[in-house]
Amino acid sequence: MNEKNLPWDDLRIVLAIVRQGSLAGAARELGVSHATVFRRLGALESQLEVRLFERHRMGYVPTLAGDDLATTAARVATDIDAVERRLVGQDARLSGTLRVTTTDTLLMGLLSDVLAGFQREYPHIVLEVEVSNREYNLSHRDADIAIRPTKSPPETLVGRQVGEIAQAVYVHQHHLETSAWVGPDSHLGYPALERWMAHAGVEADCRYRVDSMLGMLAGVRTGMGRGVLPCYLADRDDSLVKVSESLASLETPLWLLTHPDLRRTARVMAFFSYLAEVLGTQQARLKGEVSPSKSTSPRDEHEPPEHDGDGAES
To answer: Start and end of every HTH lysR-type domain (predicted)?
Structure first.
C-alpha cells in the first residue's frame, strides 16, 4: 500500500462513505457531487493499490483496509475538531461566523425576529442557521450553538435555560365541536405526545398525522382536527382557539447550548447574552399566557392526569 501523500480530504471521503453507506449519502454529507466522490474514491484506491469498499446492491461495505482507514480518519477528525474549537474559543473578535442549529418550529414561531435583532446589533457576525430536528453534534462542529427544547441537555455541552415552553390543545374556531385529532407520526420522534394522546384516549380519533409541528399547525388551522401545539406558535393565530390549559407533562425547558471549548468566544458570549435578554421578555408567550384579545375555552375534557414524559423538540 502506497501511503505517501495521503491528504485529509481523501480520508474524509472514506469516512463519509462508511458513515452513510453509499456514495450519494457521502456526497450529501460533504456537500459535493456524486461524481466527485466516485472519482476521488477511485483515485485513492488506485494510489493505495487496494480496494477500500465492496460494492453491493444495498450499498458500499468497507473492506478490512477501508475499515482501518476510516478508523484512522475518525481519530484525525476528532483531533481536528478539537483544535478548531480551541482556536475559535480564543477568538475575541465580535465578527466572523456563528453556526446555529434549531428546529423549524422555533425558527418560524419565535426566533426569526430575535435573530434579525441580533444581526442588527452585531452586523459583523454572520449567522448560519441549520433548521433540523435531527440529533445535533456540537463536538463535531455541526454547529457552534444549539437552541433546543429538551429536558435532558447533553452532558458534553454547556449553556443556560432561557425559558419553559408550554403546550396546549387548539382547534379551529369554526370546528369547535370536532372530535377528530391531528397528531405526530413516528418520524417526528415525539414519544411524549404520543403517550399523552394514548393516555387521553384520543389516539383512535387521530385522522391526520404529520412529521413536523408546523405540519400539525397547518392541519389544525385547516380544520382537520384538534391538536397539541406550542403556545408561542398557536397563540399568534387568530383562527385558533385554545381549548385546554397548558399540559404540564409536555412542558419543556428551552436551552441555549454550546461546546465548553467555545463558551468564552466573544461572539458566542454575545449571542448568549443577547438571546437570554430578549427571550427573557418573551416568557409570557412561551408559557402560553394568552393576551386578552384572544378567546379562550375551559380545560379540554380529554386532558389526562399529569404523567412523566420525555422532552421533545417542539
So the answer is: 6-63
